[in-house]
Amino acid sequence: MKIRKKIRIIVADPAGNITIFVKDPFDRTQYQQVAKQLLENEDLKGEQVAFILDTPQCGRAEGKMEMCGLEFCGNGSRSFGLIKARDMGIKGKGSVNVDVSGCDEILTVEVDTDTNYTKVKMPCPAGMSKIDLCALPIDDGDNTESNKSNIKETPLVDFGGILHVILRGIPATKENFDAVKDYITEKFNPPALGVMFCDSKTERDGESLIFPITPVVYVKDVDTTYFEGSCGSGTTACAAAFGLEKGEGIHHFVFPQPAGTIEATAVIAGGGAEKGYVEKVYIEGKVELSEEKLVEIEVES
What we know:
The protein is of the alpha+beta class. It is built from four helices and 19 strands. Strands 1-2-3-4-5-6-7-18 form an eight-stranded mixed barrel. It has a six-stranded mixed β-sheet with strand order 8-9-10-11-14-15, sandwiched between helices.
């Protein structure tokens, strides 16, 4: 039997990637039904849902949260850091250690509660490779009649909790995303998949390279696909891949996305693309937080 229940939520806006944080405890088996109702609530305008857990098991973390599909999310992580900073009464600049789903390490989120600015050292990719998508029916926008793409080597970046494909100069359409999704889910079956549609042309702003991207993310457990306002882990994947292309050094990027901009810094060590490796990646930007709200949903009694 289903009953009506009021639950506490906070709505976070990290560069337009609207994330609804649930403060009441739920079993993982209930995540999907709760998330579905919250995402269908048009007043909230949510793209994804996260659940704040009770006292984290890891003593070094000051808070723990899980995304509804147990995937990893960079924007969710830095938003959660700001939520915990507010709960802890941090005034101005500080840092918060968070334990988040889809990530094996504790993340440290640098915060400024006066400006809502956040910066987090992201987990480095678990794996980076190139993938051949030549056999897929991807429309590259050149109006040719071929039903196959010419994408021979495009970056594939694995974070364990989410797998990202980076496509340069390919239109961000549902058809193109579905072609990639069907192929990748059959071949790798990741918990979540992101396709980062990146402009083929770039600009420079001082020391930073500007790469406009359109992120599209699929989460298997809740069977949702969103053209997201922005994507933190996708931004990290792009920074890591483009940083490796540039070779050893510290590389700054600006990633304008449909609803906001995320800045990223990639530290590449050991040489160029063939011998180098990603040592660190940071993402940063503002996060707007709502006050705590009460919303009503239906749950199994």
